[in-house]
Prior knowledge:
The protein has 414 residues and is α/β, with parallel strands linked by helices. The protein folds into two domains: 11-196 and 360-412, Zn peptidases (Aminopeptidase); 215-329, Alpha-Beta Plaits (2-Layer Sandwich). The protein is built from twelve helices and eleven strands. The protein has helices spanning 11-21, 39-54, 99-115, 141-146, 152-156, 166-173, 199-202, 241-258, 296-316, 336-348, 363-367, 398-412, and strands spanning 58-61, 67-71, 81-85, 123-127, 188-194, 207-224, 265-274, 284-292, 320-331, 353-358, 373-378. Strands 1, 2, 3, 4, 5, 6, 7, 8, 9, 10 and 11 form an eleven-stranded mixed beta sheet that branches.
Amino acid sequence: MPITPDTRVDLDRFWSTIEASGEIGKGRPGGLSRLTLGDADREMRDLFRAWCEEAGLSVEVDAAGNIFGRRDGTENDLPPILIGSHLDTQINGGRFDGIAGVLAGLEVIRSLNDAGHVTKRPIVVVDWTNEEGARFSPPMVASGCFVGKYDIDWVHDLVADDGARFGDELERIGYKGAKACKAGEIDAYFELHIEQGPILDAEKRQVGIVTGGYPVRGMRASFAGQTSHTGPTPMDLRKNALAAGARWLTAVDDIGWDFAVHDGKATAARLTAWPNKAGILSDTAEAVCDVRHPDPITTRVMAEKMRRALYESAARCGCEARIEDEWEWGGDIFDQEMIDGIRDEAIRMEFNWRDIESQAGHDAYFLATHCPTAMIFTPCENGITHNNEENCTPESFVAGLNILLHAVVKRADR
């Protein structure tokens, strides 16, 4: 029998998958530390693959480790609908960030199976590799490779802080697939995600209709100095790369405060240095920063200030600076027809909804450069995420899951 307007997902079944995931790669109490391509990631991938196969999906893995579970439609020559997110976590991560989106896609498939409904277009559930960037930088690297942003050889050569190479770790855990990491024709991409902010929870909203993303600009920069003794080396002869990186990070943090009144944010996210030991100045350092603001012009202004601060900080410490990588995402990137369709379902099912902008990065940002894309936000307690205290209840997902089901079916059957 087909999906009817009254069809609803099995919330208990969905929650059981969340709880099973929460047992793999435990971190601090209540949280997860399931870093990309580690042993816990392999265990979670194996479980997800088994769930997909139990649901009758054909499973493929591409050269970046992305996992695709495909449910055929009645017209398989039509471009498929993709539903996805990620199963990896931050080093101090929660149980829902990304994970809920992948398992929501699985629940859509299971609900279709329950109803015996075969959609016109195929539907594919996706787990994107290394969304977080917690082990291999940059984040969202595999979805970026999928849409042509990054070359697969470059991805395979990424090296983690622990010295592991991306491609070697894919092979070690058995997820370096033979399928090319290259997007074909895709009809649409849906991603459900917890908000990662406090707005929905504070307003007691059941769901957020994501209309776009805060424009973000970021960069990874290196500093080159010279090792020397910390005691006798005169200040005017020092070339302390660690100090140069630290100055840049504090300058970027100040930029955030300068624009905070209108919700601007600047993040000093990471600083590494070598030798980073007492008694010796560091001759190399690397830092990562980004800026974001709801207004794209203001974001560009903040980014230019960040760039100038980089070279000023290096010069102040007698060092040289080089930008190793730059990125930008966000803006009005999501498909208006899909947004309207999601909103229509929220209204029809009488959920308490609101339009909302995303302030974090998501794989959906890269997919939006290739195909029509939309996101659905579900509330999380106090907006706390990237933290072991990240918390949701089954009821947090009622609206998002059911809207996703009906929006996907409507798109897939047209």
